[in-house]
């Protein structure tokens, strides 16, 4: 060491300080881990970022550190690790939570979205804002549509801005283009309580037609400046979307220090989803009806491939979440619609506990009201139904050969989520046979 030039000696000194700091942090980390282990009994074995510095550090390979460049590399590496650690240890001080409810169509996402929409004065909830993005992108390139990765980026960026209460980017996708940040064209405005209450609800203008106008009370056209201000005042924000294909594409949201994002992925038996889509989007599913009548489903048809693609996306996203990568730590929860339908109150409580948001009496009341049998006539998007009864209805509406086709195409997805296969028509319609395995998806990590 004596022969080292002063510059290098300084480097050694700084390095030493970092190593000491790392050791101290590591000690505290262990204590924290032990405490949190006690708090969450089901916690899986953890690998905190610093638990094994030497294993991945360049220091391991060479104890002599002969060259300055090696020292530099080691130094940079350790500094990054320290930065990484302090960043993660930094709590989100304002306590604001950002929920992203990820689903696909006909999985009960409107119903589950209401769990958050009904939370009360502290929640800013948006219903399917990416509808506009998908619509605009599908018209791009003379109707050819944007590529999957371009769409994914657009969804991600708009979602990120919305969680930050910034509507500017979304406005670019709305048609007709909002004038001075005011629009009459926001898709399903009435499904967001916070867009229909004071002060976002301005006095009604009788000369203006708004297709998705507020139902709870008459309001003027939507002013995004007011919406943005209201959003900023709320403690928590939630967005429901059926348009994000891969959870992985949302990683920048999880890593945005301005956000404290919780992803809730909602899944449902793909056979039930197909049965429900055939009713809701009748004209789009004409081929499936034909195949039901023919008794045979082609294996290489475009629509069959699309079903396979959807199932694979859902499975890949869930596997990414369940693999527990560091960026999703305590940020991912998987829920099956069937469990919500059977135990709505319990599941809602779990979702709130996971989100770190108070489970208010308003939500509880809404759930009690809306999981009772309702004789009211209901539209296709209605959430008022006896959920435990509704959830099994598909077994009587789907032709057996279509159920078989789904099992073939979506097999691995069904296995992952615990949806049992049926091998004959009688089992499909035999209510004493459950098609649902009891499964617990651990999200306490
Ligand atoms: C650190 O990594 C080494 C090599 O991979 C391994 O043998 C050792 O068990 C690890 N130690 C801890 C505490 O994880
Ligand atoms: C360790 O340092 C020696 C020089 O002292 C060098 O020859 C060797 O390649 C280094 N090993 C590694 C793994 O970097
Ligand atoms: C820091 O964290 C990021 C994201 O979690 C990770 O990709 C990166 O490898 C980490 N860097 C180091 C040096 O551990
Ligand atoms: C909102 O986002 C746009 C870009 O999408 C940006 O130019 C603008 O500064 C943002 N507004 C605020 C208040 O952050
Ligand atoms: C929208 O609301 C903002 C904030 O109150 C207001 O300044 C603006 O004039 C409103 N825009 C229109 C077109 O009314
Ligand atoms: C919902 O329907 C199921 C099956 O018909 C029935 O057992 C249950 O009591 C109903 N629940 C309510 C709350 O009405
Ligand atoms: C329905 O399943 C149960 C349990 O497997 C069986 O005992 C019963 O015979 C079945 N009913 C019919 C009508 O197949």
Automatic annotation (TrEMBL):
**Presence of keyword Transferase:** yes
Q: Which SUPFAM superfamilies match?
A: P-loop containing nucleoside triphosphate hydrolases
The cellular location(s) given in this protein's UniProt record come to: Golgi apparatus membrane
Q: Where is this region: Disordered?
A: 38-64
What GO cellular-component annotations does this UniProt entry give?
Answer: Golgi membrane
Q: Which domain of life is it from?
A: Eukaryota
Q: Which GO terms describe its biological process?
A: carbohydrate metabolic process; N-acetylglucosamine metabolic process; sulfur compound metabolic process
Membrane topology of this protein = Single-pass type II membrane protein
Q: Supply the EC number(s).
A: 2.8.2.-
Q: What's its catalytic activity?
A: chondroitin beta-D-glucuronate + n 3'-phosphoadenylyl sulfate = chondroitin 6'-sulfate + n adenosine 3',5'-bisphosphate + n H(+); 3'-phosphoadenylyl sulfate + keratan = adenosine 3',5'-bisphosphate + keratan 6'-sulfate
* Domain (Sulfotransferase) ranges: 97-418
Kind of enzyme, top EC level?
transferase
Q: Name one GO molecular function term.
A: N-acetylglucosamine 6-O-sulfotransferase activity
Q: Output compositional bias ranges, type Polar residues.
A: 43-62
> Which Pfam families does the record match to this protein?
Sulfotransfer_1 (PF00685)
Give the UniProt keywords, A-Z.
Carbohydrate metabolism, Glycoprotein, Golgi apparatus, Membrane, Signal-anchor, Transferase, Transmembrane, Transmembrane helix
Similarity field: Belongs to the sulfotransferase 1 family. Gal/GlcNAc/GalNAc subfamily.
In its UniProt entry, what is this protein called?
Sulfotransferase
């Amino acid at each position: 060491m004596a022969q080292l030039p002063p510059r290098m000696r300084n480097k050694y000194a700084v390095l030493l300080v970092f190593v000491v700091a790392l050791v101290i942090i590591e000690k505290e980390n262990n204590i924290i881990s032990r405490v949190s282990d006690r708090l969450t009994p089901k916690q899986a074995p953890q690998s905190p970022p610093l638990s094994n510095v030497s294993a991945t550090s360049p220091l391991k390979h060479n104890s002599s550190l002969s060259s300055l460049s090696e020292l530099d590399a080691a130094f940079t590496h350790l500094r990054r690790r320290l930065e990484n650690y302090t960043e993660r240890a930094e709590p989100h001080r304002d306590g604001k939570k950002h929920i992203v409810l990820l689903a696909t169509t006909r999985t009960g996402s409107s119903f589950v979205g209401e769990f958050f929409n009904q939370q009360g004065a502290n929640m800013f909830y948006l219903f399917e804002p990416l509808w506009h993005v998908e619509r605009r992108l599908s018209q791009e390139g003379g109707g050819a549509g944007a590529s999957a990765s371009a769409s994914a980026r657009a969804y991600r960026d708009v979602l990120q801005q919305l969680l930050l209460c910034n509507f500017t980017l979304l406005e670019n996708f709305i048609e007709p283009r909002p004038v001075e940040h005011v629009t009459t064209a926001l898709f399903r405005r009435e499904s967001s309580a916070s867009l229909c209450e004071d002060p976002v609800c301005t006095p009604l203008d009788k000369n203006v037609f708004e297709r998705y106008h507020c139902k709870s009370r008459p309001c003027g056209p939507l002013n995004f400046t007011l919406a943005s201000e209201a959003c900023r005042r709320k403690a928590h924000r939630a967005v429901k979307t059926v348009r994000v294909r891969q959870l992985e594409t949302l990683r920048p949201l999880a890593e945005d220090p301005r956000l404290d994002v919780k992803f809730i992925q909602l899944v449902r038996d793909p056979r039930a989803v197909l049965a429900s889509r055939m009713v809701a989007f009748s004209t789009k599913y004409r081929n499936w009806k034909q195949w039901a009548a023919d008794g045979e489903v082609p294996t290489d048809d475009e629509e069959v491939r699309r079903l396979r693609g959807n199932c694979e996306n859902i499975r890949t996203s869930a596997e990414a979440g369940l693999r527990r990568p560091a960026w999703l730590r305590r940020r991912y929860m998987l829920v099956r619609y069937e469990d919500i339908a059977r135990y709505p109150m319990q599941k809602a409580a779990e979702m709130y506990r996971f989100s770190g948001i108070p489970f208010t009496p308003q939500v509880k009341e809404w759930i009690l009201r809306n999981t009772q049998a309702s004789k009211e006539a209901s539209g296709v998007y209605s959430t008022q139904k006896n959920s435990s009864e509704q959830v099994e209805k598909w077994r009587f509406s789907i032709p057996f050969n279509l159920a078989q086709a789904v099992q073939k195409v979506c097999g691995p997805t069904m296995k992952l989520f615990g949806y049992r296969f049926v091998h004959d028509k009688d089992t499909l319609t035999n209510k004493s046979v459950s098609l649902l395995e009891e499964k617990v998806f651990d999200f306490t990590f």
